[in-house]
Amino acid sequence: MNKAVTSTLVAVLTITAAAGCSGKPHRTVRTTPVAAESSPAPEPLTPDVAAKAFHSFVNNDDVARASGDERLSLWWTSEGQSQLTAAAFRRAVAAGDPVPRYRYESPVFYVPRLLLTGPQWFVVSARRTTTDGKDPHTVYMGFLRSKAVQRWRLSLLAVLDDKQKQPKIAVDSEGYAKALATFDNALLIPPRLVPSIQATLAEEGPQNVAAQVMRAGKYTTGYYTTDQKAMKNKKQKKAGVRSSAVYAATSFPIFPLATADGGGLVLYALSRDTVITKSKSKPGRLPVPDDAVPFLNSGPVKNEIDVSQTMQYVAVVPAKPKKDDGTVKAQIIGADGGTVKAAVPAK
């Protein structure tokens, strides 16, 4: 298992002056030591701490969005969620609309037991609506602080697909969830490889061997089919327009939790970079995708545009079967994301 509060240490400074070649005796300049400023004691991660961090995010994020304060909103996010938050503000400004605001209800906290010496994280599932109560969805949210004395930030959010059931997370008698290692080989796919498997299916389609361990669907082979149609579109070909997309795992954190059936729930992110070009021999300008418009300057787009997207997912990965019959597969059950950057290469 991606996306800053510094602690200040005051050192004790002792200055010693020595005599030169004159032969005069050494003379020590005495100073009063300055006591080192103590760092705040690390706060262990508990369900109560997680609940407090979640509500702090919800309240501050709503204040930031209501007031149009992008800086404050970004202060409470990190990694891919920061990119998507900044993009939401950019789109709102371009459209002349307010930034979307949300309500979060019925949160359930999945808090693993973690060492204070490493990164701290937890997952929340909650019911999210717009502020007028519309568009209800269940969301999974991954919160992170890289050190035990730093601020909690929302690192990742994925929206559970409609009609998908929430997998049951393994929770012990004290209310703690079980974190999985990103290299856990007891799962059909180790959590750290889930993004790469999805990226492979999105780029190469159902004929790839990755289809043996991950289900076909709109987030895997569906992407492949859409991209292939765009590449083979006769109208675009006639106009000299070409497009190519590359999917890749990111360096953002992965949030893996054990499910009650021995499998895992994995939250993670992918990047999707699309290059759209137009032959110089063809008349007219390159058409710009609607989602890229807010990120471009007012200058004309002639022959190429590069579009970057950040996409975040929640997947269920079954335990590795004792006998591989090809029917047990991982499944992506939710997603969120969109365009975070668009640029016209300088040539």
From TrEMBL:
InterPro entries: DUF8094. Residues 23-45 are annotated as: Disordered. Pfam families: DUF8094. Residues 45-342 form the DUF8094 domain. This is DUF8094 domain-containing protein.
